[in-house]
Amino acid sequence: MYGFAISTLIGVALGFMFGVGCALAVMYSIYMGGYREALRDMALSTKPKRWHEELAKVKKMDAKK
User: Fold this and answer.
1) 48 backbone dihedrals φ, ψ, rounded to 5°
2) Rounded to the nearest 5°, which phi and psi values hold at 23?
3) Contact call for residues 43 and 36 (beta carbons, < 8 A)
4) C-alpha distances in angstroms, 5 versus 10, 14, 28, 53?
5) 28 Cβ contact list (under 8 Å, min separation 6)
6) For residues 23 and 31, is the Cβ–Cβ distance under 8 A?
7) For each of the chain's 65 residues, which pLDDT tens digit applies?
8) pTM
């Protein structure tokens, strides 16, 4: 019984650590991909339509403050 408990505890701990680690890695890669795309949009001479829409939203939020 003692061996099963230790094995279970190790399995749960490793599973939790790898699960959280993988989730963080995925979130980081999504975040960095969006950040890189935003930098590319800023470097364009003509901005995309969505860039202007989001800029208008930000300015509207700043005006409320």
Assistant:
1) -65, 160
2) -60, -45
3) no
4) 9, 14, 34, 56
5) none
6) no
7) 677 888 888 888 888 888 888 999 999 998 988 888 888 888 888 888 988 999 999 999 999 87
8) 0.49
Q: Which residues contact 41 (CB under 8 A, 6 or more apart)?
A: 47, 48, 51
- Hey, what amino acid is at 16? F
Tokens of 18: 């790898």
Cα dist from 31 to 6, 13, 37, 47, 65, whole Å: 37, 27, 10, 21, 27
Residue whose entry in the numeric block shows the structure tokens 């408990």: 5
